[in-house]
Design goal:
Blueprint: H1 3-27, H2 31-43, H3 46-71, H4 80-96, H5 100-113, H6 117-145, H7 147-156, H8 160-184, H9 188-208, H10 213-233, H11 246-262, H12 269-279, H13 285-317
Helix pairs in contact: 1-12, 2-13, 3-4, 3-10, 3-13, 4-5, 4-13, 5-6, 6-9, 6-11, 11-12, 12-13
Length: 329
């Protein structure tokens, strides 16, 4: 497979998945229900949406501060303002080209703070590893607290407990076989996977050597609490989700998070995933889809607006920095 084909597939497959999910959701609702969804979106209280955006911005500022804890052991301490602007610009880029933001972050950090590209990129990889672990922790927590309800939903769906366990066992067996094959393989793909896992472990272990490791942990917790909080407050924009429990919102949050990871910024797939998650708790497809769209639109507009502002402001604030010395301690 050529490099250009791989690059094209990485862009096309997430979009295709999102389109399929929206097609499925479209055909599972009536014209009247779709009209009602649009009505919910139009009537959404802007105050709660602004509160959600504000919480989201706090999470980005916290992420910018946390980034310096990874850079400090290497002798660098960029301005937090620059970190915030770089992060928002990277998120904007990711909306267009998946995963391009990570390279832009490292490049911008090198341009404006003189941090070598490979060192900056290494800290970004570490961040991603920590974020994936946090999402996995939230998924496990959600499953533990809502096991009975989820199993009941599976039973109603025709899969049942036995079928779910069989699928789980097949998945675990497949994972072990894949790991064994990758460990023995010398193919290019296997070598890339092994290198990624090696870097992942190094990144995790490096946190223990950090001077401000507890501050790093607290910021990590704050970021993910903020993510859930910005999701939680949006429930007050749709009548049927106002009384939704913490457990219901947690499952929907996980569903939306997985959609964000597997598609291009959650494009089209996010509302569908959130709706299906809330359906487990008896919330109608109309209200669930409306909630998902309101949340996705709020997040996306936040990234587009503040990302565009950051893209313009970043070079203006650092117009004299390209020829400056590194900010090494």
């Amino acid at each position: 497979m050529t490099h250009s084909l791989k690059k094209a597939l990485k862009t096309i497959i997430p979009i295709a998945l999102g389109v399929f999910l929206v097609w499925y959701l479209y055909h599972s609702t009536t014209a009247a229900q779709r009209q009602q969804i649009l009505s919910y979106i139009k009537k959404a209280d802007p105050i709660w949406i602004m509160v959600s955006v504000f919480i989201g911005m706090l999470s980005h500022i916290s992420r910018a501060i946390r980034w310096n804890y990874l850079l400090e052991p290497m002798g660098y301490r960029p301005k937090v303002t620059n970190n915030v602007l770089i992060i928002l610009t990277a998120y904007l880029t990711n909306l267009g080209i998946p995963r391009s933001g990570e390279f832009l972050r490292a490049t911008a950090l090198n341009t404006y703070e003189k941090v070598p590209f490979e060192k900056g990129f290494g800290t970004i990889v570490t961040e991603r590893v920590v974020d994936v672990l946090m999402l996995l922790l939230i998924i496990v927590t959600a499953l533990l607290f809502q096991t009975e309800l989820i199993l009941g939903f599976l039973q109603e769906s025709g899969l049942g407990i036995v079928g779910s366990l069989v699928l789980l066992l097949i998945g675990i067996l497949g994972l072990f076989l894949s790991i064994r094959l990758i460990r023995k393989s010398t193919s290019g793909f296997a070598l890339k996977v092994k290198l990624f896992l090696k870097n992942m472990m190094e990144g995790i272990l490096s946190i223990g050597k950090m001077k401000n490791k507890w501050a790093f942990v607290m910021h990590t917790l704050f970021i993910w609490v903020a993510y859930f909080a910005m999701f939680w407050v949006v429930k007050f924009t749709v009548f049927e989700t106002v009384e939704a429990s913490v457990g219901a919102m947690l499952i929907a949050f996980v569903g939306g998070g997985i959609a964000m990871m597997t598609t291009n910024g959650g494009f089209l797939a996010y509302p569908a995933a959130v709706s299906k998650s809330l359906e487990i708790f008896g919330i109608s497809a109309v209200s669930g889809t409306a909630f998902g769209w309101i949340m996705w639109i709020a997040q996306t507009l936040m990234i587009i607006i503040f990302g565009a502002i950051s893209f313009l402001v970043l070079p203006l604030l650092n117009k004299d920095k390209e020829s400056s010395l590194p900010t090494k301690k």
